[in-house]
Amino acid sequence: MDLHDFLLKQQDVHVLDATIRYDRFRSIDLSSDNPDVTVELVSDSDGFSAYIDQFIDDRNGLAAFGGYLEKRTLYKRSELFQDETEQERDIHIGLDIWAEAETPVLAALEGKVHSFDFNAGKGNYGPTIILEHEFDGVSFFTLYGHLSAESIETIEIGDDVGKGQQIGTLGEASVNGDYPPHLHFQIVIDLEGNFGDYPGVCSQDDLEHYRNNCPDPNILLKIKHTT
User: Fold this and answer.
1) How many Cβ atoms sit within 10 Å of the Cβ of residue 40?
2) Domains, the chain, with CATH or none
3) Are 126 and 112 a contacting pair, CB within 8 Å?
4) I want to staple 77 with a disulfide (CB 3.0 to 4.6 A). Which of 41, 43, 175, 198 is the partner?
């Protein structure tokens, strides 16, 4: 069994409060193909939050999700993703789950705390936790970004965590990189020397590498897409 098959085999995996059932999750399009998601909208965290909240309410949901390999306009608002010497980074390589601030964040699988950091700055992750897991004697990792500051105040590297154990809560815009409250969840096969951080957005030139190193998180979560 390879890692893909292992992830596919897992059942009842949750990374947010498990009482928010997956049948109340609504898939959202935040790609550059959506004319509603303008640079002006996403540059205002209050307006962007209102857009997300209205989207969820209109569909009788409790959370919105999506974004794996989605090409997004919203990264144009931050210099973090702009580099004059490289192609623009605008392809999202994790899965976002949009919900209320302070919603509990859970460990997807049994593992231990590999690292954590406060990745400050507009457009960045804010408080971030990376867990290390083992399959067939080889480590892989899950990353949880845009958390509350309290999420990383008392944890220690090497702490054991159980599947479904709360590891933090969703942060507000003031700490999470100036986004509406959400979890950036990402599977990473090789952290490539990173500590408390790993790219969550890539350029078209680097897409093949990151697609291979960061498989679709929904293989593990198995949230059904809805309209």
Assistant:
1) 10
2) 3-221 (2.70.70.10)
3) no
4) 43
| Structural element, H or E, at residue 140 | strand 138-145
Residue with the two structure tokens 């990189």: 177
Tell me the DSSP string of 161-210.
Answer: E-TT-EEEEBPPTTTTTS-SSEEEEEEES--TT-SS---SEEESTTHHHH
**Residues near 16 by Cβ (< 8 Å), separated by ≥ 6?**
63, 97, 99, 103, 104, 105, 106, 170, 183
**15 burial via Cβ count (<10 Å: 0-12, 13-18, 19+):** buried
CB-CB contact of 98 with 63 (8 Å): yes
pTM: 0.95
Q: DSSP label at 20? A: S
What is the per-residue pLDDT across 197-225, written as a single tens digit (0 to 9) for each? 999 999 999 999 999 999 999 999 999 98
Closest CA to 107 of 134, 136, 132, 127: 132
Work out the mean pLDDT of the chain and round it to a whole number: 94
Going by their DSSP bridges, the two strands 95-98 and 182-188 should be labelled as antiparallel
Find tokens 């898939």 and name the residue: 27
| Strand, helix or coil for residue 31 | coil
Q: With DSSP H G I counted as helix, E B as strand and the rest as coil, what are the percentages for the chain, rounded to 5? A: 20, 30, 50
